[in-house]
Design a protein that fits this description.
The protein is built from 9 helices and no strands. The protein folds into 3 domains: about 10-130, no CATH class; about 165-225, no CATH class; about 230-300. The chain starts with 8 loop residues before the first helix and ends with a helix. α5 runs parallel beside α7. It is elongated, with a radius of gyration of 39 Å. With about 300 residues, the chain is mainly alpha-helical. Helix content is about 85%, strand content about 0%.
């Protein structure tokens, strides 16, 4: 029975039970002749001694592995606890999921330690997501309130027949201070805000410097009202850059057409091409100025 040794804890436990059963059978068996009693007992006992010696060696090795695994899992529990304590600074669920992935890669920590460690880790995971959900719900309610305030502010400002430079800049400042709105409403409320500002600028004769300040404030508002200013900057920069590239390509094509038809005297197409080229160049200059204001606003955010 002891010639083939088990390879894992479960098999060792099964084999150990068989040896214990043999011990019980030995006790139930009747006595043997006195002159061979010691010899039979010693032979029987020798097999047990070899088995249990090898079993103890296996268990000592396993205990070292369990201890190492338990220490590694306790370190993960500590990391999870730290995430929970600092959830206000970073509530990215991938952080917890990463720890869960690390946990799965670690072997068993032993029958008793495994369950205790798993219970502590599970509690930290649940606490993290419970707090994240509570924080998200609170943020959503705050954003809904901000949206209502911004809509009311825009409506009140739009109802004014005219607004001086100070009134317009005050409106922009108030809009920025209110805070973020639900993501699905960000684009629409920003469009209404920009439309209100443009309408006011069209009604008033502001200086070039004043217009520059207003446009810069609008770009600043775009960044400040985003939940991710860096991402908003990159997206807006990309949008404007694409418009510039597209207009440059169109302008280049129009200039080629203009050169091609230049030999046709009196052609009305020449005037159309030149007019479109001038409009494109003017628009390109405007977008480049928008890009500059966006960069300035981003640096000062």
């Amino acid at each position: 029975m002891g010639s083939i040794l088990p390879e894992d804890a479960k098999s060792w436990e099964s084999k150990t039970q068989k040896f214990k059963n043999l011990q019980e059978e030995w006790k139930k068996a009747g006595p043997v002749a006195k002159n061979i009693s010691d010899e039979v007992w010693n032979e029987f006992r020798s097999h047990f001694d070899v088995f249990f010696e090898k079993r103890n060696s296996f268990l000592n090795t396993e205990k070292k592995k369990w201890k190492a695994n338990a220490d590694a899992k306790q370190a993960i529990v500590d990391k999870a606890k730290e995430l929970v304590e600092n959830i206000a600074e970073n509530s990215n669920p991938q952080l917890i999921k990463q720890l869960q992935g690390e946990w799965k890669k670690i072997g068993h920590a032993g029958r008793f330690a495994e369950q205790k460690l798993w219970k502590k880790f599970r509690q930290q995971c649940d606490s993290f997501f419970d707090q994240k959900n509570a924080s998200r719900n609170a943020l959503f309610e705050e954003e809904k309130s901000n949206l209502a305030l911004k809509k009311k502010l825009i409506k009140t400002f739009t109802a004014k027949k005219e607004a001086a430079f100070e009134g317009l800049t005050s409106f922009i400042d108030e809009f920025q201070k209110i805070g973020g709105v639900p993501k699905k409403d960000t684009v629409s409320v920003m469009k209404n805000f920009e439309a209100a500002v443009k309408n006011s600028m069209d009604k008033n004769k502001f200086s070039d410097e004043q217009r520059h300040q207003i446009q810069k404030a609008i770009k600043s508002s775009l960044l400040n009202n985003s939940s991710d200013p860096d991402k908003a900057f990159i997206q807006e920069k990309s949008r404007i850059s694409k418009l510039i590239d597209k207009a440059l390509k169109e302008t280049s094509q129009l200039e080629n057409n203009l050169n091609f038809f230049s030999s046709s005297k009196g052609s009305s197409m020449l005037d159309q091409f030149q007019q479109q080229i001038d409009q494109n160049k003017k628009q390109i200059d405007h977008w480049r100025e928008e890009l500059k204001k966006l960069r300035d606003a981003y640096r000062q955010k």
